[in-house]
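Review this today:
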Amino acid sequence: MSLRDGELAHHIRRLGNHELNELLLQLPKASFAALVEVALARPVLPAGLVLRFEPTPGVDGWTVVACAPRRRLGILTRDRDADGRLDYRAWTWTGDQVQLSGISSWRRRGDAAAALAWVTPVSGARCLALAAHVRALPDTALHELLWALPRERFDRLVEAAYQPEGTAA
């Protein structure tokens, strides 16, 4: 790998989450679909997504709020399973129970909240996870991914990566 490849990868990793996701949307559909299939294969609570639990009147549970900016995601309730163990369920604002891969209750409140964030687009969980996945790619894999961009967009990206520090991209 050349120094130029490393500089381009470094530039991509410095992009903000939104800017990086906007760039990825310019990939050909097949490339983007393959990337998403791998990056979003399983739900995670990505770094950078802060969730808060607020008491919900009349419900044995909490309203889940994503912070900065504040966005209400849904409600978590707690109940007992058939064996008497405490479990948590997540509900969207439309009243639908969250179910991921056949799982609809969790032993830990944080896991239920992560599942709620995963299925609620306004949380930004999937965008953050996609950006984190791309940043974690080795330089050569990242460079190969970027080559799939339209030529004009790739050329502008290369030019921005090699701007002297302190100049506008």
User: Anything to note?
Assistant: The two ends are 24 Å apart (CA to CA).
